[in-house]
Amino acid sequence: MSYRGKTLLLGNAEVGKTSILARYAEGIFKDEYEATIGANFIVKEIDLSNVLKGLDFEDKEDFRKKGFKLYIWDICGQYDKLFVTEYYFYNALGAFVVFDITKEKSFNDINLWVEKMKSLSGDIPFVLVANKVDLKNDFAIEEREIEEKAQEYGVPLIKTSAKKNIKIDLAFETLAKLIIEKSFTE
Amino acid sequence: MKRGANYQVIPIERIFKSIRDEYKAKIEDTLILEDTISKLEVDEEETEPRVWSINSKDKIRTKIKDLVEDAEDRLLFIITPDLLMEELGGYEWILKELWNKKFANPDMELIIALKFFDDLKDEIKKLLKIGVKIHYIVGDNIIPFGLLIGDNDFILTTLDQVQDAPEYTSGLWLEHGRKRQIMGYVHLFKHFLSSECREVGLTTKKKKTIEKSA
Question: Do A4 and B164 touch (CB under 8 A)?
């Protein structure tokens, strides 16, 4: 049986969490928006060829042989309905905190998501994801501000576009690497 | 003309024996009646509707198998994703069970709803070929419940495990349900099908035709 890690996709409604997941897991992009109710769940095996580079731990060969699956929970982004979904945070090993680079509020609300994640899942590794970078003319947040935010948390920042398939795989591989690092080397 | 005797002398032992035999027969009759009545009472009790709570993955799977096995007229089934997931035992255990059921009972109504993924394609084709109606669940949300309705029973399971993958290990099982008790759940099933699902059908491959050039 392969190794597995529960992962959360967090962030305000309409930032593109479900699209990121659909792009990563199925290679598709849906144009029309449908709000996630409760949560969405997908299992995806991680391509370890890049992930294991530079990592050194005792069970590395066994890990490579058995493989690594992310159990990805895409959590409903309506923060006021979060009480319904808090239960889903339990036992997570990593998270993506996603915001829409064209919507300032989604960036300002990152703190709420990080706080909620830390209180419910503990001090787990996460990746900050700035989505919709294809909409260059509509950027609502200074790139400098975004980079400062990532530095403040001490986490990787990945600028993605689910629509144009920009750095989606990289985001998942980065988080997978952080999870493996934390689980095996700390 | 000679006349027969008006009275007959019967030995007293014979009279008492006959009385004893009559009582014995009556006692035996009462025992048979008592036994029959008690059996009837037990049967009546056994067909009374009962609701049970089932709380474990294995018990729920066993009950699902039982309901599938016992059904004769219909099976309506919203299959939760945990019953099909490779990591939780795969899909064969249940899809083969359903195939066998429909194959042995071609007239039975068998409708299922499930979340579609590529690995299921071949199994789905097999089920469609023997007349099972299949609906796939659209949208990107985890379904909150599963439901299996048999002839006079149903089991309703709810999402209660989110530790790694979603699992549905809390269930309510109605045994020997009355028609009116099941009616609402059949309605729920049909409502789910119409609002959350699309029906899957087999399409025939178009033969390539070679157009002859003049």
Answer: yes
User: Which SS3 state, helix, strand or coil, does residue B149 take?
Assistant: strand
What pLDDT, in 10s, does the model give residues B11-66?
A: 888 889 999 999 999 999 999 998 888 777 666 566 789 999 999 999 999 999 99
CA nearest to A89, candidates A100, A103, A74: A74
Q: What is the pLDDT of residues B157-172, one digit of tens each?
A: 999 998 899 999 999 9
DSSP state of B152: S
Complex ipTM, two decimals? 0.80
> Are A73 and B164 within 8 A, CB to CB?
no
Q: Cα torsion at B197, B188, B78, B101 (round to 10°)?
A: -110
Residue A68 β-bridge partners = A3
User: Between the CA of residue B188 and those of A103, B76, B78, B182, B194, what are the distances in Å?
Assistant: 39, 11, 10, 10, 10
| Chain A contact present for B139, CB below 8 A | yes
Entry pTM: 0.80
C-alpha distances out from residue B39 to A46, B44, B50, Å: 62, 9, 19
Residue B195: its H or E element:
helix B179-196
Q: Which chain A residue has the Cα nearest residue B164?
A: A6
Are A90 and B163 inside 8 Å of each other by CB? Answer: yes
**Residue B54, C-beta contacts closer than 8 angstroms, at least 6 positions apart:** B60, B63, B155, B170, B171, B172, B173
- For chain A, what is the domain count? 1
Considering only the beta carbons, identify the residue of A22, A37, A90 that sits closest to B141. Answer: A37
Contact criterion met (CB < 8 Å) for A38 and B142: yes
Domain that holds residue A115: 3-184
**Encoding tokens for residue A186?**
């700390």
Per-residue HEC secondary structure of B9-46 comes to: CCCHHHHHHHHHHHHHHHHHHHHHHHHHHHHHHHHHHH
Q: Any idea what the CATH number is for the domain that residue A58 is in?
A: 3.40.50.300
